[in-house]
C-alpha cells in the first residue's frame, strides 16, 4: 500500500463529447465574436449582443454547464464549463461571462433550495437575464471585513443600502448578487438591478470588453438567497469556481496570442528571411509555448479537482490563478514584442488581449497573492503531490 506522501499519477484526456463541445463553442465564436464584432460591442450599450447571449444559454446550453439538470442546467461538470470558457476567452467574447457564468451561477447552485434560488437561477441559465457578483474578496477569498452593504428587515422583506465599487459586469446586469451584513451576520441577497433604490455608475476600465460599474443601493428591495450560516461557504465556493474558470479564459486568450505570434513569425520577413528563423524569436516563442502548456495543465487540473473533489479546492484554484495570470500577461507582452511596431497600433488586436490579460490578472487576486496563499496552505497542511498529463488533442 502506498504511503500518504507517495505520488499519485493520473492522466486527463478530453472525451469525444467534450471535443464536440469545444468545436461547437469555437464555431459560435467564429460567428458571433470576430474582430470587428468585438470592437463594435465593446463600445455599445449594453456592451454585448443579447441575442447571442440568449443563444449561448438556450441553444448551446453553455450557461448551464455544471448546473444539475434538475435545476434547469445542461448537466456536465466544471471541466465542461472550463472548455467553453476557454474558447470564449480565445475569441475575446463580449458578454457577462465573469459575472454570470463564473460567479453568480455557481453561487446559486451551491445555495439552499428555496424559491428565490430557483426563480433567480433559471433565467440566468437560459440566458434571458444576466447577473453580477458584488461580493468583496481578497486574493480570491471572501473578505467579510470588507462588506460595506447593510441589510435591514426579516424573513421575506429586506432592504439593502451601501456602495460597492468596481463590480465587473454590473453596468448591464439584470440581477445583483450581493453580500450584506444583517442582524445575524453576513448573508447573500439578490437585488433587481433595474428596480428602485439602485444606482449604477459606469467606470472607465483598461479592458473595454470587460466593463465595470460602481453600485449604490438606497433601501433597495432584496430577496434572501442564503443566511449567515451558509453565505460564507457559498461565496467561497463561487470564488473558487470563478478563479478556475477565469484561469481557463486566460488559457484561451494566451493560446490565441501564441498562435497569432507563430503565424506572424512565419510570414514577417526581415533581411529576406522569416523572423521566426532567428534564434532570439525562436527562443521567445518556445518560452511562450512552455508558459502556455503549464497554464493549461494548471487550469484543467483545477477544474478537475473542484469537480471531483480530488484535492483541496482552495489550493487547486490558487495554483490555477497564480499560474495562468502570470502566463497570460507574459505571453501578451511577448506577443507585442514579436509583432514589433504593428503590435502597438490601435488597429491590431494584440493590444485588446494585452488589456484583457492585465485586467484578468487583477481579478480574484494577483499571481503574487495566490502564490503566498499556496505557500501558507502547503506549509500548514501535508498534501500529496500529483503528476498530471493533459492531452489537448
UniProtKB/TrEMBL annotation:
Keywords: FAD, Flavoprotein, Oxidoreductase. It comes from the Bacteria. It holds the Pfam family Acyl-CoA_dh_1. CDD domains: ACAD. Its cofactor is FAD. Residues 15-127 form the Acyl-CoA dehydrogenase/oxidase N-terminal domain. Belongs to the acyl-CoA dehydrogenase family. This is Acyl-CoA dehydrogenase. It comes from Mycobacterium branderi. The lineage of its organism: Bacteria, Bacillati, Actinomycetota, Actinomycetes, Mycobacteriales.
